[in-house]
Amino acid sequence: MHCDDGDDHPRHGSGSTVRRSMPLFPMVLIAFGAVALLNEIVGHSVSFFDVFLLLVGLYLVTRGRTTDHYPLLIVGAVLTGSAAGGVIGDIVGGGVGESIGTFGTA
To answer: How far apart are the C-alpha atoms of 83 and 68, rounded to whole Å?
Structure first.
């Protein structure tokens, strides 16, 4: 039920909401581009899977924040931390890279 007070302005809580969402396909294209760019900059292989998981984690965090869906936010945060650790571990390489990957997962 919408009550009109005569000034033609929507009242607070009138039920009109703006829904924002991020499509997944552009994120996949960004993941491909990010992996290609990182492989050129670093000079050795960066895992596409880690970059894709990083973008999916960021997507879930963003989606969880805009919809106030906290379980989605928690899963997105864990996935983002784990994938970011994996990507940084791939860039650094060696034993230090593995330690950074484990720290990101934690």
So the answer is: 23
Pull the structure tokens for residue 30.
């960004």
Nearest to 63 by CA among 21, 23, 34, 100: 21
Percent of the chain past pLDDT 90, that is, above it, reads 0
CA 73 – CA 34 distance, rounded (Å): 23
Structure-token pair, residue 85: 């650790």
pLDDT, one tens digit per residue, over 77-100 is: 888 888 888 888 877 777 777 787
- The residue count of the chain comes to 106
Helix locations, the chain, DSSP H: 24-42, 48-67, 70-92, 94-105
Picking from 22, 6, 20, the residue whose alpha carbon sits closest to that of residue 59 is 22
Across the chain, mean pLDDT equals: 75
CA separation for the pair 82, 100 (Å, rounded):
10
Contact between residue 50 and residue 34 where contact means Cβ atoms under 8 Å apart: no
